[in-house]
């Protein structure tokens, strides 16, 4: 897991499926194709959405664009708000 963004309104975490933890050996998953995703938390609404598959690919393209042309915080949060509008899952503290 890598924290990509954290503000008063949003948090974005990149989750690498089947990634070995530090100090642990890689696990052979056979024919299973590891998938990664992004969790976007809307702190204001108390909801989160997990993007995987084609949604994660689209979000990765957005991140790459941000790396090339550094956006303002407002631009980032406007984009995150669009993705967060997909959120149906209330955040639950463990």
TrEMBL record:
InterPro entries: DUF3567
Protein name: DUF3567 domain-containing protein
Source organism of the structure: Hydrogenophaga crassostreae
């Amino acid at each position: 897991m890598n924290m990509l963004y954290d503000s008063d309104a949003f948090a974005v975490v990149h989750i690498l499926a089947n990634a070995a933890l530090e100090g642990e050996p890689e696990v052979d998953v056979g024919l299973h194709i590891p998938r990664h995703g992004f969790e976007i938390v809307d702190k204001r609404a108390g909801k989160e959405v997990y993007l995987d598959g084609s949604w994660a690919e689209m979000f990765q393209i957005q991140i790459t664009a941000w790396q090339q042309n550094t956006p303002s915080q407002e631009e980032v949060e406007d984009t995150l708000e669009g993705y967060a509008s997909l959120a149906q899952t209330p955040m639950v503290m463990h």
